[in-house]
Specification:
Order of helices and strands: HHHEEHHHEEEEHHHEHHHEEEH
Number of helices: 13
Distance between the termini: 43 Å
Radius of gyration: 26 Å
Shape: elongated
Number of strands: 10
């Protein structure tokens, strides 16, 4: 833990670097900190912060820049910024005026969040896990492969490929579909799976039982995989990452849905900020600010932005939280 003065010096240096992108001199750190101390004291504080690993000096004659550890300390000890009233009004107006179905709402939210934050934005929709099912349909794709189609009462549709160890006949598929409908109708995926285990063995052939079990297993996977991802603002990349290699690396992450889901989701409830190596990625200049939103009967999802480590954390945290709250208010009714 830093003392108050050095914490203030670090905050001033980080915010100056976020603003300019240039190494920060001791004079700039002194001016921006607002401290009434000598230049020698500031130089000593900067040397200490460097020895602690919070800042580094790219060149002997250059100023200092924050390290990932410096950004982490700053984020852990700063408070979210107050948004301009025009920004708050814009977020509130978006959720007041929008009356779209879920997928369109989430897609447009990612665009709005990127537009306001000036960073690429990601919205992870809630999965089907907590929604009640209105129907389960089986389509024979040929040989031993089925397509299981799950329709929720909200109108959302999920499809899962099911592979059997045999080629089913039409009568067995029809019987299996009737039994699955009975188990899952008006239930969520977890309750439907439990109902499958309670089916009496009488009057169920070995093949029908195998079909039902295979489909139930696929629907359990669906509970994890049905949360759609919406990305907005990829056009921001070139302005944020001047280095082409860094921009290409981040674009590659955005294009890989499983990786994007992993870096945005967090074990931490509420708002999370992950910086640099905390994302389990080497040599990627990247930070992620995200928060959970509750979607009423739909469950919960996550919303966030991606940016370089010198992103404006205080403003970004507040914007992400405001948008998360707006989504929760819109979907929680």
């Amino acid at each position: 833990m830093l003392d108050d003065r050095r914490s203030q010096v670090l905050q001033a240096l980080v915010e100056e670097y976020i603003s300019t992108g240039q190494p920060v001199s001791s004079r700039a750190a002194l001016v921006n900190s607002g401290l009434n101390v000598s230049s020698a004291t500031i130089r000593n504080d900067l040397a200490k912060l460097e020895s602690y690993g919070f800042i580094s000096q790219p060149h002997t004659s250059a100023g200092r820049v924050p390290t990932p550890q410096g950004y982490r300390y700053y984020v852990d000890h700063c408070s979210p910024a107050r948004l301009r009233s025009a920004t708050r009004v814009r977020i509130e107006a978006f959720f007041t005026d929008v009356h779209h179905e879920l997928s369109r709402l989430l897609k447009e939210t990612s665009g709005m969040l990127s537009d306001i934050s000036h960073y690429p934005a990601v919205v992870i929709g809630p999965g089907l896990g907590t929604e009640s099912v209105s129907g389960v349909h089986l389509v024979h794709l040929g040989d031993s492969v089925l397509l299981a189609v799950i329709v929720a009462h909200s109108g959302r549709v999920s499809r899962e490929i099911v592979r059997l160890s045999f080629d089913p006949v039409d009568s067995d598929l029809a019987h299996a579909e009737v039994l699955l409908e009975r188990c899952y109708a008006d239930a969520n995926l977890e309750d439907g799976a439990e109902a499958v285990t309670q089916l009496a063995a009488a009057d169920i052939s070995t093949n029908v039982r195998a079909i039902i079990n295979a489909v139930a297993a696929a629907l359990r996977r669906s509970e994890e995989s049905t949360s759609d991802i919406y990305v907005g603002g990829t056009s921001q990349l070139a302005a944020l990452w001047e280095d082409l290699a860094a921009m290409s690396a981040v674009l590659g992450l955005i294009e890989r849905e499983a990786v994007l889901r992993d870096i945005l989701e967090s074990d931490q409830a509420g708002t999370a900020v992950r910086i640099g190596s905390e994302l389990n990625m080497d040599d990627v200049d990247l930070s992620v600010v995200s928060t959970t939103y509750e979607a009423g009967e739909h469950g919960s999802g996550r919303v966030g932005v991606l940016g370089p480590m010198r992103m404006d954390y205080r403003r970004t945290i507040k914007i992400v939280e405001e948008v998360g709250d707006g989504l929760a208010d819109s979907l929680g009714h």
